[in-house]
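Re-running the complex after MR caught last week's input typo. The corrected sequence lines follow. Everything else is unchanged.
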Amino acid sequence: MTTQRYALALGDDALILAQRLGEWVARAPELEEDVALANIALDLLGQARTLLTYAGELEGAGRDEDALAYWRDDRDFRNVLLVELPNGDFAVTMARQLVFAAYQYELYDRLRGSADETVAAVAGKAVKEVHYHRDHATQWVLRLGDGTDESRRRMVAGLETVWPYVDELFEPFDGADVDPTALREPWTAYVHGVLAEAGLSVPEPTASRRGGRDGLHTEHLGYLLAELQHLHRSHPGATW
Amino acid sequence: MTTQRYALALGDDALILAQRLGEWVARAPELEEDVALANIALDLLGQARTLLTYAGELEGAGRDEDALAYWRDDRDFRNVLLVELPNGDFAVTMARQLVFAAYQYELYDRLRGSADETVAAVAGKAVKEVHYHRDHATQWVLRLGDGTDESRRRMVAGLETVWPYVDELFEPFDGADVDPTALREPWTAYVHGVLAEAGLSVPEPTASRRGGRDGLHTEHLGYLLAELQHLHRSHPGATW
Amino acid sequence: MAPTDQRTDDREAAFYAIVDSDGRIEPRDDMPEAYRRTLIRQIAQHAHSEIIGMQPEGNWISRAPSLRRKAILLAKVQDEAGHGLYLYAAAETLGVSRDQLLDLLHTRKQKYSSIFNYPTLTWADVGAIGWLVDGAAITNQVPLTRCSYGPYARAMVRICKEESFHQRQGFESLLTLTRGSAAQKAMAQDALDRWWYPSLAMFGPPDTGEQVSGGHTEQSMRWGIKRFSNDELRQRFVDMTVPQSEVLGLTIPDPDLRWNDERGHYDFTAPDYDELFRVIKGDGPCNEQRLRHRVEAHEDGAWVREAAGAYAAKQQAKRAEAAA
Amino acid sequence: MAPTDQRTDDREAAFYAIVDSDGRIEPRDDMPEAYRRTLIRQIAQHAHSEIIGMQPEGNWISRAPSLRRKAILLAKVQDEAGHGLYLYAAAETLGVSRDQLLDLLHTRKQKYSSIFNYPTLTWADVGAIGWLVDGAAITNQVPLTRCSYGPYARAMVRICKEESFHQRQGFESLLTLTRGSAAQKAMAQDALDRWWYPSLAMFGPPDTGEQVSGGHTEQSMRWGIKRFSNDELRQRFVDMTVPQSEVLGLTIPDPDLRWNDERGHYDFTAPDYDELFRVIKGDGPCNEQRLRHRVEAHEDGAWVREAAGAYAAKQQAKRAEAAA
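Corrected-run output:
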C-alpha cells in the first residue's frame, strides 16, 4: 500500500511544476509552445489532483486536493527542489523538463506495476503523458544544443543551472512504491544519450542540493505559494 | 474634518509605494542607494501607518492599520495607479520618485494647514521627509539625464513610462482637505524645472490613466497584494 | 477591351457565382484582390485577438482558487493559443505568413479586439469573460461558419464549438460565485458591472447614426464574409444574455434595460462608442501593457526560433548529404 | 644591516609599542604589511557579510505579517547596508577601494559569513536571525570594539550598538510568536531547530583537535585584532543564549545541552564542522543564489554608477571652467 507521504511527494512534484509551467503561458517563444507548455502543465496538474486526492484519502483526515494544495505552508510541501526553481529562460526550462520528464517516465513506467491499484492506474495514464513530455524536451534540447552559438551557450548554462538538483530525484525514500535509486541508471542512459546527440557535455558534478522531501525548500517556493494560495486562503470555506 | 476616504487614499499611496521601494533593497545600484531607498520606503511606511490608523478611527468600525492593509482586496485599495507600477529599471523608479515626491511635497506642505489636527501633524512631519525624497530623486534625474548616452536614453524611457499616470494625481477629490487640482501648477514648475536642468524634454501627453481612487487598478496590484498579504491572511487573528 | 480584362471579368463572374450560391471559395480559386486583402485583415485581427486574449485570462492561472478551476482555465487559454494557430494558418492560405502578420500586430498596424484592453481585476472577471466576451464572440462568429472563404469557415466551426464550451464554463463559474458567499456574489456583480458595456461594444460601432464607421459592412456582406449588421448581432447578444443574467441572479448595469413586446427584443442602453473609439485608438487601460507583453515575449523568444531554424537547416543538409 | 632595515625595525617596534599598550593604530601610522593585509581581509569579509546578509532577511520585507514588523525589518536591513558602508570605509583607510573589495567578493576570492548561505524559509527565521545570528555576531564583535586598528574599532562600536538593538528585536519577535498560536510557536521552534547549529558554527572551527584551522589565531591575537579564541566566544554565546531560550519557552535542539557546575558553563554539542567547511567551500544551500543575486544587482546597476561618474566629471569640468 502506498504511503500518504509518497503520494504527497509525487503529487507536490507535479503540482509545483505545473504552476511553474503555467507561468510560460502567453510568454512562450512561439504559439506552438504556448500550446505545448500549457498542455504539459495540464497533464501535471491532472496527476497532481489525483495524487493529492489520494494522499488525502490515505491520511483519512478529510483533506481533499484543495485543502492540501492551498492550506499547507512551504515547510509541509514535499516536492523536490528542482520543480520549484524559477523558470529562467527557455533553455533552463527545457533542461529542467528533460531532467524531470525522463525521471518521471522511468518512475511511472515502474509504478504501473504497483500493488496499489490507485497508483498503478495514475501511472498507467501518466506514463503516456510523460512520454510526450520527455520527447518534447528532447527535441528542444537537440534544437538548442545544435542550433546557434547563442542557443548552445544558453543550453549549456541551463543544464548547469539544474544539474545540482538532479541527485535529489534519486535519493532513497522510505516506503516508496518504487525505489528512486533504481531509476538513476535508466535515466542516465536516456539523458546522457540525448546530450550526446545534441553535442552537449554532461555537466560536471558540482554541488548537490536536497531537502525538498523533508520540507526544506529554496526561498523561491514561498513566493510561488503566496501567489498560488492567496485568493483561496482569502475566502476560507468558499466553493469555487 | 478629514474624510475616511481621503485618509485611506493618502495612506494607500504611501503603503503601496513603500512596498515597491522595499523591493529595491539588496538590489540597488550601489550601497548608498540601498540605504536611501530603504529610508524612503520607511518614511512612506510610517506615513501609511499613521494615515491608515486614522482612516480606521474615522471609519469607527474597529479596523486598525493592519486590518486595512492586510484584509482589503484590490478593488478596495484607493491608491493612484502610479505607485503600483512595477519598479522597472532604476530610471523608471527615479522618474516615479520625482513625479510622486514633488506631488507629495506640495500636498503635505498645504496639509500642514489642515483644520484636522491629526492630518496637520502627519503633514508637518511628512513634509520634511518628502522634501528629502524629492531632492534625492531630483539629484538622480539630473545625473541620469546628463550622465551617459545610455542613462539618458533610459531616463527618457522612464519618464515616458510614468507620464500617463501623472494626471491622476491632480484629479478632483470630493472632500479632500487640499484640492489636488491646485497642486498641479507648483508641481509643474518644480518638475519641469528639474527636467530642463537635466536637458530632458517633458514627455508628450499620450494616454492618461486613472481609476485608482475608485479601486480600478492595474493588473499589477493583485500580485503585489498577494505577496503583501499572504502570510498575514494565513493566520487570522494572530498577533505578530 | 483587352483580353486580360475579359479574363478578369470571367474570373470575377466565377467568384461571384460561387459566393452568390453560398458556395465556398478555396485558396486556389480566383478572388478579387480587395476580397483577399479584407479577409486577411479580418482573419488576422481575429487571430491577434485570440493570442492577446490569452493575457487577461492567463493573469489568473497562477492564482485560480481551486485546482479544478486552474485546470479549466489552463485548458481554455491553451485553446485560445490553438485558435490563434488555426486562424494564422487560415490567413496563410491567402498568401501571407504568420511572421508578417505578427509583425503588423507588433507595429500596431493591425488591431485586436478592444475588449482585451480592459484588466482582469478579480477572479470573477475570468468567469465574466467566459460568459460575456466569449458569448459575444460566438454571436459574432457563428454566422462566419457559413462565410464564403472555406478555410476561414472551417476554422470557425471548430473555434465556435470550443468557445461555446468556454462560454458555458464561464457561466457555470459565475453561478458558483453567485450561489456562494456574499463576498463571492459581490465579486460576480462587480465583474458584470465592468464587463457589460465593453462586451456590447465588441460588436463595433452602430450601423446608423453619426458614429457609423467606414461602411465596409455592405461590401463584406456582398462577399459573404459578414452576414449580419453590428446592431443585429448586438441585439441578438442582449436577447440571449439577459435571461442568463436572471438565472445568475445578477443585475445588468442598465436601468433602461427592458423587454419590448412590440419589437420582440430587449431595449437597452448602447455602449459608449466614444470610449470604444478611444480604446481602439490605443487609449484603453491595458493597450500598452498587452502589446508590450506580446512584443517582449516575441523578442525574448527570438533566439529560440532562430535556433530551431538553424537546427532544421542542419538536419536538412545532413539528410541531403546522406541521400547524395 | 642596511639603514632601511634599521628603519623597518624601528617602525615595527613603534607599531608593537602601540599595540602592546592597548593603543590604537591609525591609518597614517606605520604597520606591518601582513597586519594590513590581514585586517583588509577581515574587515572586507565583515563588510561582505553585512551586504550579503541583507538578502536572507530582505526576503521577508514584502511579506512581513504586520506593518510594524515590516518597518522594523526594513530599518534593520537598512542598518546592515549602513554597516557595510562603514566597514568598506574602514577598509579603504588601509589603501584598497570598495570597488576592489566588491570585485574580490564577486569573483569568490573573498568570503562572507557562511551563515547567510542558509535560506529563510518562514517568518520566524527573521526573528531567529536577529536573536541567534546577531547574538553570535555581537559576541564576536564586542571584543573588536577594542581592537588595535582605530577605524575598525570605531566602526565596531557603532555596529555593535545597532546589532544589540536588532538582537533584542529578534528576541522580542520570537517571544511574540511563542506566546501566540500553536502554529506560531511551532514556527519559532522550527526556526531555532534550523538556525542553532549554523549559529554555533559562526565562531569558526574549534581551537583544538583535528579540525583546527590554519592557526591565524595566535598572530591575530598578538596584533590585537582578535581577543578571544573561537571556542571561548562560542561558549560565551551558548551561556548567554540558553537562558534566553528558556524565557522563550523553546527547546534548543541538543539533547546533551546541560549546565556544568564544575566548569561554570553549559556543556553542548559542537556543530558539524564538516558541514561548515562544505558551506565555506561553496556547497551550502544558498551560496550560488546569494552570490548570483549580488552580482546581478551589481551588474544591473553598472550603468547607473557610470552615469553618476560621468555627471560628476561634467559638473567638475563646468566648475573648473567657471573658475578659470
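None of the earlier attempt is carried over here. Chain B is about 60% helix and 0% strand. Residues 19 and 125 of chain B are 20 Å apart (CA to CA).
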